[in-house]
């Protein structure tokens, strides 16, 4: 199982800035998602490699990702 969400942006610059902000929070927590950055959209996928599924941290980081997007 994985948590995946696509975030929409007006251009590549905004998508890249969002990807970098998510990368910053991921690095601070030591928990890293798959990030696909494209023109006008970013797809973020959270899951825990070690357990090959979802952990509480994935839910927390997905919520924090949503907060970054809303800010």
What features would you describe in this structure?
The protein is α+β, with helices and mostly antiparallel strands and about 70 residues long. The chain has a single domain, classed as Transcriptional coactivator/pterin dehydratase (Gyrase A, domain 2). The chain is about 45% helix and about 25% strand. The protein is built from two helices and three strands; from the N terminus they run E-H-E-E-H. It has helices at about 10-30, 55-70, and strands spanning about 5-10, 35-40, 40-45. Strands 1-3-2 form a three-stranded antiparallel sheet, covered by helices on one side. Strand 2 and strand 3 (about 40-45) form a beta hairpin. The chain is globular and about 35 Å long. The chain starts with a strand and ends with a helix.
